[in-house]
Amino acid sequence: MKDPIGIGVIGTGYWGSKLVYEYQQAERNKRKLRLLKVCDASLPSLLSCKKKFSLSDTVLTQNADDVFNDPNVSAVHIATPNKTHYPLAIRALESGKDVLIEKPMTLHSREAFDLVSIAASHELVLHVGHIFRFNTALQMARQALEMQAVGKVYYARVQWTDHCPPFHDRDIVFDLGPHPIDILNLLLGSWPTQASGIGRAYRNSRSEDEVAYIIAEFQDDLIAHIELSWLHPGKRREVSIVGSEGSLVVDCLNQKVARFTDGNVAELPVQVNNTIESEIDAFVDAVLSRSTSVESGLIGAKTVEVLETITESMWDRPLPMAQQYKPDHMAALAALLEISRQGICTLCSTRKDLRTNDRVTENDKVEKYVGILMKSGFLNAISTKDGARYEVTEKGLSFLREYQEVANPDVDEQDQTPQASKRRAKLR
Ligand SMILES: NC(=O)c1ccc[n+]([C@@H]2O[C@H](COP(=O)([O-])OP(=O)(O)OC[C@H]3O[C@@H](n4cnc5c(N)ncnc54)[C@H](O)[C@@H]3O)[C@@H](O)[C@H]2O)c1
């Protein structure tokens, strides 16, 4: 039997502490590894982990360099915030360590592909924590699809929702999105040919989306819809695949797969497993057998590329609503702006002009604009004996705010978030 490998875990927050527990269990039960270093930049986080798992002081460090410089540590599991993945992984690989990096692999695809090539050139193992690859329900679903359980696949729906307090350091597409994208690749055996989305941050700063709807198109007319939310009641991790001969619905949390055909439903047999344990096992086995296949790294990098495309699509619609209003509708928009400035307007049925308080905007198409604006829910009409008065609704006001911000990037010049910079860059 080979010597056990030395493991270092970097990051002991929510996820990292689960990993420390699993590595400890694996050390005790399988004897293929030894947990030699546990690192977290935050002392309270490190001390809480020490207490929880009775770790010895010699194992603990606040400095990741202590992990990279330890000759007895041959493999490192990185579970720190997403933006730190790339710099830490580069240093780990350059120190000759095998690496398992949590999802999302990086925040930019060029960095992810860079890691793949560095690992390959140094003949190091590089795995990405796409844990649902180890979920036995999804593995069963993949087998069933390979055996034509639903015939020709038409479309897929993924619901990845939860109710969490607002996060200020992560956006939902990069944080939750890796799993659905990876799972679709696992089940369908392909990557989207196109992907786009729309996202919103309702409770935190405008830059970190916490709800997103994503549409992905695959070859052969296959489409997929992904719903991501940190606002939805109840935790749901569900994947449905609908085809010509039936459907599969996978409950990834409870590891159940149901097959629906001709009004019948049958549960497929699944042996429930501990996915973190399986992921760690696969990593340790790859390190021990020097299996340096680039597959896991490439899947991680490709996933980041898809997430990047989705995020870019969200900022690629500088005047989304205005596009529907071209060319005449731009005048309607001008009318809406005017009405909002004046607070109220009166449309006189006889004169067919638009009055905003005492000012009168001559316009022979004004009725049409008002119709469009009302249809969009931007104006409310109040009948009067002279004709009708119109007020801008809340929806109209919020549309105007968004329109003005996008049309005039200087408005959010103070916003230094990456997304605001991206938006400004696109508009210039
Ligand atoms: N595979 C999964 O299903 C899954 C689930 C949850 C989280 N994750 C991933 O795990 C990672 C961590 O997520 P989390 O929820 O545990 O976050 P967290 O904020 O709870 O923990 C992150 C920890 O990293 C520490 N840290 C930050 N920078 C560091 C550095 N340079 N060196 C050492 N320590 C540093 C922080 O002090 C913190 O304790 C994220 O990438 C996340 O996407 C994966």
CATH architecture of the largest domain: 2-Layer Sandwich
Mean pLDDT: 85
Tell me the CATH superfamily of the largest domain: Dihydrodipicolinate Reductase, domain 2
Give me the count of strands.
19
Alpha-carbon distance between the termini? 62 Å
Count of domains: 3
Give start-end ranges of low-pLDDT stretches. 317-327, 348-360
Counting DSSP H or I runs of 4 or more residues, the number of helices is 15
Largest sheet features: 8 strands, mixed
Give the bound compounds: nicotinamide-adenine-dinucleotide
Widest sheet: strand order? 8-9-10-7-11-12-13-14
Oligomer: single chain
Helix percentage range: 40-55%
CATH domain class name of the largest domain = Alpha Beta
Radius of gyration over alpha carbons?
27 Å
- The CATH topology annotation of the largest domain reads as Dihydrodipicolinate Reductase, domain 2
Gross geometry: globular
Beta-strand residue fraction: 25-35%
Output the structural class. alpha/beta
Q: Can you give keywords for this protein?
A:
alpha/beta; Rossmann fold; Dihydrodipicolinate Reductase, domain 2; eight-stranded mixed sheet; six-stranded parallel sheet; 19 strands; 40% helix; binds nicotinamide-adenine-dinucleotide
Short description:
With 428 residues, this protein is α/β, with parallel strands linked by helices.
Summarize the structure in words.
Helices cover 40% and strands 26% of the residues. With 428 residues, it is of the alpha/beta class. It has 3 domains: 5-129 and 278-282, 3-Layer(aba) Sandwich (Rossmann fold); 136-272, Dihydrodipicolinate Reductase, domain 2, CATH 3.30.360; 320-427, Orthogonal Bundle (Arc Repressor Mutant, subunit A), CATH 1.10.10.10. An 8-stranded mixed beta sheet has the order 8-9-10-7-11-12-13-14. It has a 6-stranded parallel beta sheet with strand order 3-2-1-4-5-6, sandwiched between helices. A 5-stranded antiparallel beta sheet has the order 17-16-15-19-18. The chain is globular and about 95 Å long. The N and C termini lie far apart (62 Å). Nicotinamide-adenine-dinucleotide binds next to helix 1.
